[in-house]
Amino acid sequence: MVIKRNISSNVGKPFSSKHIKIWQTVLAIPSGKVASYGQIADLAGLPGRARLVGKALAAVPTNGWHGQAVPWYRVINAQGRISFAAGSENFARQRDLLQAEQVLVIGARIKLKNFQWQPDLAELLFVLAH
Q1: Cα–Cα dist 97/76, whole Å
Q2: What does the alpha-carbon distance between residue 129 and residue 96 come to, in Å, rounded to a whole number?
Q3: Contact yes or no for 77/52 (Cβ under 8 A)
Q4: pLDDT (tens digit, 9 = 90+) per residue, 2-32?
Q5: How many CB atoms sit inside 10 A of residue 98's CB?
Q6: What is the β-pairing status of strands 109-110 and 105-106?
Q7: Which of 44, 98, 111, 120 makes an SS bond possible with 25, Cβ 3.0 to 4.6 Å?
């Protein structure tokens, strides 16, 4: 299933090898877990590029990456909060998708202690290499 956000079509939008690294890393986040923008940047080998993660997620092609929907909704800010404005359609969509995966969202907050992805780095390197 391809999950769309309320943004203009991403067909034909330019993306780079950095975007691909980010998408591959986000694809590795398991269901029921979340990661911060900065954590994804670090794991993708792009330390300090948290904003690039947001831009890359906004640029995911509408049909996904290599036939897989990129679970953009599993990426939240470093404070454990959904970054979309509370009450917006995108906020509600992200909250609902996380709750469907049994992630507890209270207001806009997710308890990172309970739900933050802590990947095994050897496994992650294997996944990203293939």
Answers
A1: 13
A2: 32
A3: no
A4: 333 433 445 455 678 999 999 999 999 999 9
A5: 23
A6: antiparallel
A7: 44
25: which 2 tokens? Answer: 């890393």
Report whether 53 contacts 40 (CB < 8 A).
yes
Which is more confident, 15 or 101? 101
53: exposed, middle or buried (C-beta count within 10 Å: 0-12, 13-18, 19+)? buried
Give the tens place of pLDDT for each residue, 62-93: 888 888 999 999 999 999 999 999 999 999 99
Q: Which residues contact 28 (CB under 8 A, 6 or more apart)?
A: 119, 124, 127, 128
First CA to last CA distance, the chain:
22
Our CA angle for 18, 21, 25, nearest 5°, is 140
Asked if 42 contacts 36 with a C-beta cutoff of 8 angstroms, the reply is no
27 φ, ψ to 5°? -60, -25
Alpha-carbon distance of 108 to 39, in angstroms, equals 19
